[in-house]
Write a structure and sequence with these properties.
Layout (H helix, E strand, L loop, with lengths): L1 H35 L5 H13 L6 H17 L3 H13 L4 H17 L3 H11 L9 H17 L3 H13 L5 H16 L6 H13 L3 H17 L3 H18 L2 H17 L3 H12 L9 H16 L3 H61 L4 H35 L9 H18 L3 E8 L2 H8 L1 H16 L7 E6 L2 E7 L3 H16 L14 E7 H4 L3 H17 L5 E3 L15 E4 L5 E4 L3
Parallel strand pairs: 4-5
Antiparallel strand pairs: 1-3, 1-4, 2-3, 6-7
Helix pairs in contact: 1-2, 1-3, 2-3, 3-4, 3-5, 4-5, 5-6, 5-7, 6-7, 6-16, 7-8, 7-9, 8-9, 9-10, 9-11, 10-11, 11-12, 11-13, 12-13, 13-14, 13-15, 14-15, 15-16, 19-20
Length: 603
């Protein structure tokens, strides 16, 4: 009886073990099936995912992690990116093996790219890519490298995208990986503005079509259409797109649908088929959400704007132009955002590497110190080495401090906008120059001028244009100054030139030449047309002595005299001689280039 009982129990255990093994095998099989069709059959994938979730309580810990990865795919298919990111981050932070973490990192990077969080996506790549060398499953490895290629293409780093796609091709991939790698190579070449040969694009289309990947085949055909359009084969490009447009629409991927209609609108417009171009453009714009911040949306709005112009409808044309301008601005901002994300992450990596390098150096110092403690015989030699390093460090930091001091000195002396002396430094240099002139019996002259109607320039065209005008004025004035002269910006739009060893008449001619040069400044590069003129006041040490304050006072008085007389002129301080010293008055006549002559005598 006992023997029979034991035999019965053994049979039951064997059956249970067999059932468990069958259940695990079945669960693994379902996981694999779901993974195989997750991109080619979204509906079938969702059915398998629901079936797996109902059996989750019977799964092992590893199977649960794989199911969590598939669940993340499911969230992505439904457009629930935040839920997908949560699942993927749990895998990365958990105790999963390197292969599953690699897979999760690839999907996470791709998810961030889909949600335009490019900085986070690149950070996820930096965590995932170092694991690639330890991945034995070639298909898993290929998928991760291809995700890197996709993301690098999106941020404009086409050489890196081509590098990772080529690594996959060199590893003789099969199935979908070969299709994706071929697409990435073509896309990166287009990014470099160099189209591949037709045969290469046809091969990529064939690879994708044979693997049942209509979306990727559709993208490859769009690349071929772009190449034919660039080669002048507009009709061939249109025929290709219209032939496969029904397939694209059946695939129900809005972004590709919008791209096809946008290209057809642009190409039909090129041939003068206005009605067909308009129909395609309207359909492309209808996919605005899918193609937001993209070149296809910009092209579609441009076509609608051009059609409105052709039909002589200014109201509609203006409305379409606004939409076109907004789409173009959004697209350019998107490109800049992607490029900036790469630069930020690259900088973070460099900083991290520097920190690691610093820690390594510190570790080496500790090891060296321990060797010093262990090997007393080498103490003297090591001390000498440390002293040399110390001296070198002191010299290095002394050099750095000196450079910083020079930089700070330049910042304190220079006007940040124009690059000439600021008011404080101008005062110091001018006073030194006047003192030297007084010692040597040399004359000195001061030219002071103010830009006319400068506030109007700022108000009408913006401070950026005003800053450009100030910079151009400073550059123009530099051409009239010798190395011994002092040019400075006193504040706002007011400038001054102290001319060493120069009399009043020579300074007046320089001021007039400067006035003419300012009026000749071409402002078209700013996108606006306006005049730059200045009102000048001139005096000299022969009249005001070597006091900078007095020279500035006299020149300032003449400057405002020029303003009062109508601006854009030069007024010279020429006081009347005292009757006790000389009879009559000394009047200076200075002809202007436009024929005006100013006569000024002041008490």
């Amino acid at each position: 009886m006992n023997v029979r009982v034991r035999q019965g129990l053994l049979a039951m255990l064997l059956c249970a073990a067999s059932g468990l093994s069958f259940a695990q095998e079945s669960f693994d099989s379902l996981l694999q099936q779901a993974d195989d069709i997750r991109t080619s059959d979204p509906a079938g994938f969702n059915r398998l995912l629901a079936k797996l979730e109902r059996q989750e309580d019977r799964a092992t810990s590893e199977q649960q992690v794989r199911l969590k990865l598939l669940r993340a795919y499911g969230f992505l298919v439904k457009g629930q990116a935040e839920s997908a990111i949560k699942q993927l981050e749990e895998i990365q932070l958990g105790k999963a093996d390197a292969e599953l973490k690699f897979q999760a990192g690839a999907v996470l990077a791709n998810t961030y790219a889909m949600t335009r969080q490019f900085e986070q996506g690149l950070q996820a790549l930096n965590v995932m890519l170092p694991l690639a060398q330890s991945i034995e499953d070639r298909e898993v490895k290929h998928r991760g490298l291809l995700v890197a290629g996709v993301l690098y293409n999106q941020v404009g780093e086409y050489s890196l995208a081509q590098k990772y796609a080529q690594q996959v091709l060199d590893d003789e991939p099969v199935g979908r990986s070969r299709c994706v790698a071929g697409n990435l190579i073509i896309e990166s070449q287009i990014g470099f503005l160099t189209f591949p040969e037709d045969e290469a694009i046809f091969a990529a289309i064939q690879d994708c079509a044979s693997q049942g990947e209509p979306l990727l085949a559709g993208f490859s055909r769009s690349y071929l259409a772009r190449k034919w359009f660039a080669d002048g084969k507009v009709t061939n490009a249109i025929n290709l797109l219209e032939r496969y447009l029904p397939d694209v629409e059946r695939a129900a991927y809005p972004r590709l649908i919008g791209e096809y209609h946008s290209m057809l609108a642009e190409y039909r417009m090129k041939l003068g088929n206005v009605e067909a171009a308009e129909q395609h453009a309207v359909k492309a714009v209808a996919q605005t959400v899918a193609i937001a911040n993209s070149q296809p949306l910009v092209a579609a709005h441009r076509v609608l704007y051009e059609i409105a112009l052709l039909r002589g409808d200014p109201t509609k044309a203006l409305n379409q132009y606004r939409k076109y301008a907004e789409a173009d601005k959004a697209y350019l901002n998107e490109v800049k955002t992607r490029e900036l994300a790469y630069q930020l992450v690259r900088q973070q990596i460099l900083q991290k590497n520097q920190q690691i390098s610093l820690l390594d150096q510190q570790n080496q110092v500790l090891q060296q110190q321990r060797k010093v403690d262990q090997l007393q015989a080498q103490n003297t030699r090591l001390i000498v080495i440390l002293l040399v390093v110390l001296v070198a460090s002191i010299g290095y930091w002394a050099f750095k401090i000196k450079r910083v001091q020079l930089s700070l000195k330049k910042m304190a002396e220079t006007d940040a906008l124009t690059g000439i002396c600021n008011r404080h430094h101008f005062t110091l240099r001018a006073e030194r120059a006047l003192a030297e002139c007084a010692r040597n019996g040399e004359q000195a002259a001061l030219i002071m001028f103010d830009l006319d109607h400068f506030k109007n320039i700022n108000d009408r065209f913006g401070h950026e244009t005003g800053d450009w005008a100030l910079t151009e004025v400073a550059e123009a004035c530099k051409g009239f100054c010798r190395r011994i002269d002092v040019l400075g910006r006193l504040g706002g739009e007011e400038f001054a030139i102290l001319m060493y060893g120069c009399d009043l008449r020579a300074a007046a001619r320089v001021a007039e030449d400067c006035r003419v040069r300012l009026a000749q400044i071409d402002t078209k590069s700013t996108g606006h047309t306006f005049a730059i003129t200045g009102s000048f006041g001139v005096t000299s040490s022969a009249l005001a002595g070597y006091s900078l304050a007095k020279l500035l006072s006299h020149a300032d008085r003449m400057l405002y005299r020029a303003k009062h007389l109508g601006r854009n002129r030069v007024c010279i301080h020429e006081p009347a001689q005292d009757n006790a010293r000389d009879v009559g008055s000394n009047v200076l006549e200075l002809p202007h280039r436009d024929g005006r002559v100013e006569h000024h005598t002041t008490a």
